[in-house]
Structures are given as C-alpha cells and as structure tokens.
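ENTRY TYPE: paired fold submission
RECORD: A
CONTENT: sequence, then structure tokens
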Amino acid sequence: MPDLQRRLLLVEDEESLILTLQDRLESEGYAVTIARDGETALEEGWHGAFDAIVLDVSLPRKSGFDVCRDLRGRGVHTPILMLTARGQLIDRILGLKLGADDYLTKPFEMLELLARIEALLRRARTLTASSADAYAFGGIEVDFRRAEVTRDRGAIELSALELKLLRYLVEHRGSVLSRDELLEKVWGYDATPVTRTVDVHIASLRQKVGPEWILTVHGLGYKFVG
C-alpha cells in the first residue's frame, strides 16, 4: 500500500468515474483532491503540494492538454498521468510533448491505473543521476544532475520520465534494448502492460532530440547511437 501521506490531484468531470476512482484510491491510502474542470485543476496543481496528478484530457473550461502545458510552463514538475479516450498515436504524443509523464487510454482496468501511479511515484523518488552526470551528442547537451537538456544552448523540455528514458539509452548506447527491458528498468513495471507505452515515449523523445539518434531494430527493440 502506498504511503498514507501521498497526495493525488484527480482531475475528472465524469461523476460516476470520480466516485469510483476516489473510493479506490483512498482505500489504497492516497489522499485525493478532486478538480472537475481545467481551470480549477490548473490552480490546484499550481498551488497544491501533490505527489502526482491524474489528469483527464476532455474537461470543461480548459482541456487537459492546456492544463499540462500551463503547469509545466509555470515550473510545476509534479508527475502527470493523462487519461484519454482518444486512440490516435498523435494525441498521446501531444500529451507527452506538453510534459505529461505517462498516459492511460480509457477504458482502463483499475489495477493498471494503480500500477501506473505507483510507478510514477517510484520514478519521482529515484530520478537521480546514476553514472554519468552529463552527456553530449549532435549539438545536444544533457545535464542529468540538473535535469536540463539543451540544443545549441536552447532549452529542450523533457518530462522526468523522458529524461530517465534518455539516460538509460545513453548508458546502454550501442546496445539493442527490448521493450520489456525498458518497461522494467525505466517504467518499473513488473509485467508488460498491454499498451504501446514504450513506442509512444520513444516517438516523443525522437521528436525532441532528433530521430537519427534512436534507431528501431525491427522485432527486437531500440538502439541509441549518439
């Protein structure tokens, strides 16, 4: 069970889902704050001290995409898990590009939601530089200790998860990394989720640092060549 002090901001406007999620999350030991529209979510997320935010995309007054973008723009680095009913890959990538750390497509199983939240919290606790504190490739400079990425001295915004993914790729550059290995080492999942989680995050990371550095090895996984 999670630490009783873990605080979650749940942003959702569907009352039946709010009741279901709040009841289960609180039974798991989370302290849950509810926001039913995007503007309230932005204010809560900005001023509140939350350990994670579960953010629906389709909201009144301000979309989840806008909330995520504005929170990151205000310097809020709280881990964000986006909930979306959209099936298009580009919609998921958009959320990640705006600063979300993970996504979950509706409808979803409650156990998977709990696993995603717990993984986000674990990553937030363990996001520290492990071996190399800095790395440079193709005009891109990465300072893992400061969590800063720049290209030609211009900032590249990476989420905490994207930074951890990039670090793992850098540390294993030249090696073919399977999706299962990445899910275990970067996401912290014990079992493989039935999603395209790795593919979506790799696609988002490629758009930010350049597709030429992360190669697809068909049938096997990915290889970093920076």
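RECORD: B
CONTENT: sequence, then structure tokens
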Amino acid sequence: MGSIFSCQLMAFESARQPLTTVDRVEIPRYMGVWYEIASYPQWFSRNCFNTSATYTLRSDGNVDVLNQCHKGSPTGVLKSAKGVAYVANTDTNAELKVSFFWPFYGDYWIVELGEDYEYAVVSEPGRSTLWILSRTTEMEKSKLESLLERLANVHGFDLSKLKFTRG
C-alpha cells in the first residue's frame, strides 16, 4: 500500500467523482446469507455482534431482506429487521432500492463484487453508508487489504469511518 497521505489524497480526489457500481449483478447468485465484515456505523446497528443479511428472491422479482444481529454480545438477544428491495437499474442490477419502513426507500448500490460472489461492498451515491459483506464470517487478510485499498483509492471512501464488526 502507498502512504496514508497518498491514499487519503486519492480518496479525496475520487470522492469528487460520481460513485460507480459493478458492471453486472446476477440477482439469483446474490441471494443467500451475507456476513458483515465492516461498515460505517449506523444508529440501528449500534452494539451489534454477528451481523448478517439474508436475501431471498420473491416470485414477483423483488427481494425479501432479513437483517439480524445479536445485541450487546455475541450471544445476546437476536434482533431482526425485515425489509424488501427491488432492482432500480435493470441494465446492471447493481442499483437497488430497499425499504424497512414503507414508504421510505434507500439506495443499495453494489460497488464491489467478488468474481465468485464471495464478497460484496454496498453503499449509496453520497458515500454516507458502507458495508463490506462476505459469504463467510471472516475474509482472507490479503483480499480484505486489497479491497480496502480500492475502496479508498478508486471509490473515494474515508476508511477512518470504517468499523470492523464484532463477532
């Protein structure tokens, strides 16, 4: 990796550019369980452990979303939130809208995706949210380091805001 200053400078320059998504997402391959590796903290995930998201394709083409975490400790009370998502950009399937409180929808943009759908990075155009997701509870260190470098240098994310999920 380059110096911290050069990474921060490149991230600042990248932040001026519009956020881009991956070229194409095969929605059926994206379905299943994803584990949160790291994220920008959000009020609803405060004090969460073992955070996961499960996506299930519905017959109408929309996606059922089930977010879960244990509150307070890895064995704490299991909390869940159910939502629904739909593809907002059918050219790529990488831009979705998700709602946990109808009629309010938020952007769910897939900005990185592993070749074998082994990891994904999700955000929104303003870069105020960021989730690193994996099909396993841990990511290989070298793969994660490479991903973090791209998030800063290519996508313009501020990695100082990133918190690694407790498991």
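NOTES ON RECORD B: The mean pLDDT is 91. Residues 46 and 67 are 13 Å apart (CA to CA).
STATUS: closed
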